[in-house]
């Protein structure tokens, strides 16, 4: 996937703007050419603005919690439905044969002879 020259130039300009240590000139206030803000000129938030900010913070917190619950719930539903689908597709299991249950636990025919040869008593 090749990047065109115009796209490459756009990415370089965007990276330069994002990585620059100072904001662009248009972001600085026009009233003070040095860019320094005096202690008395700093804006103060009114109680109405503070209350609005608290409400927005609460809305953001509740929204993020609800989004997290939705994502986890969606994941759980998808996981359950896939497993249930596999269970349904699998079908009935064949019952285990019970003709000779102990056949796998029997000793080989020559095991007793070997046991007698190994026993010195």
Provide a descriptive summary of the structure in words:
The chain is an all-alpha fold and 121 residues long. It has a domain at 46-88. Helix content is 55%, strand content 0%. The chain contains three helices and no strands. It has helices at 5-19, 47-90, 111-118. The longest helix has 44 residues, at 47-90. The radius of gyration is 38 Å and the shape is elongated. It starts with a helix and ends with a helix. The mean pLDDT is 78.
List descriptors.
121 residues, mainly alpha, 55% helix
What layout of secondary structure does this protein have?
Blueprint: H1 5-19, H2 47-90, H3 111-118
β-strand amount: under 5%
The low-confidence parts are none
* Through-space gap between termini: 81 Å
Mean pLDDT across residues: 78
Shape: elongated
Helix content: 55-70%
**Total count of helical runs of at least 4 residues:** 3
Order of helices and strands: HHH
Find the structural class using helix and strand composition.
mainly alpha
Largest sheet: none
> What's the alpha carbon Rg, rounded to whole Å?
38 Å
How many strands in all? Answer: 0
Task: State the gist of this model.
By secondary structure, this protein is an all-alpha fold. The protein has 3 helices and no strands.
């Amino acid at each position: 996937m090749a990047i065109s020259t115009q796209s490459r130039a756009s990415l370089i300009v965007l990276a330069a703007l994002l990585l620059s240590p100072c904001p662009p000139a248009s972001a600085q206030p026009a009233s003070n050419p040095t860019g320094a803000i005096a202690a008395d000129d700093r804006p103060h938030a009114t109680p109405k603005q503070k209350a609005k900010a608290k409400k927005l913070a609460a809305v953001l917190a509740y929204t993020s919690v609800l989004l997290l619950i939705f994502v986890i719930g969606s994941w759980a539903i998808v996981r359950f439905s896939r497993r249930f689908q596999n269970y349904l597709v699998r079908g009935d299991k064949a019952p285990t044969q019970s003709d000779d249950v102990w056949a796998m636990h029997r000793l080989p025919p020559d095991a007793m002879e070997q046991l007698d040869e190994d026993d010195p008593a």
